[in-house]
Amino acid sequence: MRLLLDENLSESIATRIRVAFPDVEHVRRARGTGISDAAVWALAKSEERTLVTLDADFQILSLTLGAPPKVIWLDAHNASTADIARVLVERRASIQEFIENSESTMLVLSVPRLR
């Protein structure tokens, strides 16, 4: 599973989830800061990565353009970085199933704040 974390997510999430998702990259590491949504979309598509984001704009792109790339949109309601990482790891099987399903284009994951 090749994941690309959007700029709106902490880079530390990549480190926290690397055991469950060894092929995870962060947009800032790949292209720096201030990259446009269109450039993020193109990067995820060209590298065949599933985009993980908090940005609702990618929901619209997913619905409008379809996949690739596939999009995991996190409904996080100000959840902490630790909460986001925990949910991604806990939902690994669901994420893998989503990625392998040729008809699915977007997965919404709720991230409850535990603290």
Question: What are the salient characteristics of this protein?
Answer:
single chain; alpha/beta; Rossmann fold; five-stranded parallel β-sheet; 6 helices; 43% helix
Write the SSE topology.
Elements: E1 2-5, H1 12-17, E2 23-26, H2 27-31, H3 37-46, E3 50-53, H4 57-65, E4 71-75, H5 81-90, H6 92-100, E5 106-110
Parallel strand pairs: 1-2, 1-3, 3-4, 4-5
Give your account of this protein's structure.
With 115 residues, the protein is α/β, with parallel strands linked by helices. 43% of the residues lie in helices and 19% in strands. It has six helices and five strands; from the N terminus they run E-H-E-H-H-E-H-E-H-H-E. It has helices spanning 12-17, 27-31, 37-46, 57-65, 81-90, 92-100, and strands at 2-5, 23-26, 50-53, 71-75, 106-110. Strands 2-1-3-4-5 form a five-stranded parallel β-sheet, sandwiched between helices. Helix 4 (57-65) links the parallel strand 3 (50-53) and strand 4 (71-75).
Strand content: 15-25%
Number of helices: 6
Structural class determined from secondary elements:
alpha/beta
CATH class: Alpha Beta
Runs with pLDDT <50, length 5+? none
Write down the domain tally: 1
> Nearest-angstrom radius of gyration?
13 Å
- Following the backbone from N to C, one meets helices and strands in this order, namely EHEHHEHEHHE
Architecture in CATH?
Answer: 3-Layer(aba) Sandwich
Major sheet description: 5 strands, parallel
Assign the CATH topology: Rossmann fold
Give the tally of β-strands: 5
How far is the first residue's CA from the last residue's CA?
A: 29 Å
Oligomer: single chain
Strand order of the largest sheet: 2-1-3-4-5
Q: Mean pLDDT across all residues, rounded?
A: 92
The proportion of residues forming helix, as a percent range, comes to 40-55%
Shape assignment: globular
